Amino acid sequence: MVTVKEETRKGPWTEQEDQQLVCFVGLFGERRWDFIAKVSGLNRTGKSCRLRWVNYLHPGLKRGRMTLQEQRLILELHSRWGNRWSRIARKLPGRTDNEIKNYWRTHMRKKAQERKRDAISPSWSSSSLAYHSPSPSEPPPEVGLEQRELNEVGVCCCMTAGFDEEEEDVKGYSMDQIWNEIATPEAVSGLSFEECKNEVCDTSWPPMPSPMWEYSSELLWKMDDEEFKMFPPVDDLLVSNYQHGREFCN
DNA sequence: AAGATAGGCAACCGCCGGACG
DNA sequence: CCGTCCGGCGGTTGCCTATCT
Predict the structure, then answer these.
(1) How many angstroms is C1' of C9 away from CA of A143?
(2) Minimum CA–C1' distance nucleotide for A100
(3) What is the DSSP letter of A63?
(4) Which residue has the closest alpha carbon to C9 C1'?
């Protein structure tokens, strides 16, 4: 029509976009998504990039069905925390909040249907037909129900041991100075994807566990709470990215 | 074999809170 | 302090595939 201004892309990501994103995340780290979105040339929002990375491209992600252990853990944690998916996800290395959320939804749907069916027969009380997710701030109202479900999958109560009442007071990293230095679009706007790819990326694709990533992925997934404080990854990663980026831009 | 339904998953939306100028 | 921006989170939607009838 009148304007030539391209609209932000939406919908499914192409493989090319994925590669592009992986490269630029490799270069600049998992921050400043807006910036990455701009300089990468991807016609996506920063949010969209972040989501794609976190839910799909992150090298530490597990694939495939939830294991029985994971299922138990989800039930257990949900009974304690409610719909705090990201919080729950932190206890399940390699699983994303989105994945857990999806799992829970289908799980609950199944349960609801089973109950609807069973409501006819007396094995379930009809009061548990509807499940309402507890609000994030309060404990779930139907702990009894949850407990039954845990029993269903054969959970043992030792599970509750070892979860500290989360003090995830991860303090912010003041990286903005570094960023200010490197993150001017002009400094990188000349990057072509091909250059980035050659320079930064492993040739293998898809990016799932490549040596380059294993370091950060394992660490990042496992790093939680105390460990995170002891072993802050972001700065290190950023510094290396920064150095790499500098080399790259020269 | 074909249509209907359910399940699984990726992605978007809107809100919120923290950081920063 | 206040306004703005950005990233994170939870809820929701929509599409694709598998399974059922």
Answers:
(1) 24
(2) B9
(3) -
(4) A86
Q: Find the Å distance, CA of residue A181 to C1' of nucleotide B15.
A: 32
User: What is the rounded distance in angstroms from the CA atom of residue A49 to the CA atom of residue A44?
Assistant: 7
The Å distance, CA of A9 to C1' of B17, is: 27
d(CA A81, CA A192): 45
Compute the distance between CA of residue A90 and CA of residue A44 in angstroms, rounded to an integer.
27
State residue A117's pLDDT score: 63
Q: Which residues contact A47 (CB under 8 A, 6 or more apart)?
A: A33
Q: What Å value separates CA A169 and C1' C12?
A: 30
Nucleotides of C under 7 A from a protein CB: 5-13
Over the stretch A59-98, which tens digit does the pLDDT of each residue have?
888 877 788 888 888 888 888 888 888 888 888 888 888 8
Using an 8 Å Cβ cutoff, are A154 and A212 in contact?
Answer: no
| pLDDT < 50 regions, chain A | 1-5, 122-188, 190, 202-250
pLDDT value of residue A103: 87
- CA of A140: how far to CAs of A88, A89, A120, A149, A175, in Å? 14, 18, 26, 14, 38
For residue A233, the tally of other CB atoms under 10 A from its CB is: 17
On whether the CB atoms of residues A32 and A181 are closer than 8 A, the answer is no
What is chain A's length?
A: 250
Provide the 3-class DSSP secondary structure of residue A103. helix
* DSSP state, residue A162: T
Residue given tokens 């294991």 in the structure block: A67
Residue A203: per-residue pLDDT: 43
**Are A220 and A60 a contacting pair, CB within 8 Å?**
yes
pLDDT at position A43: 86
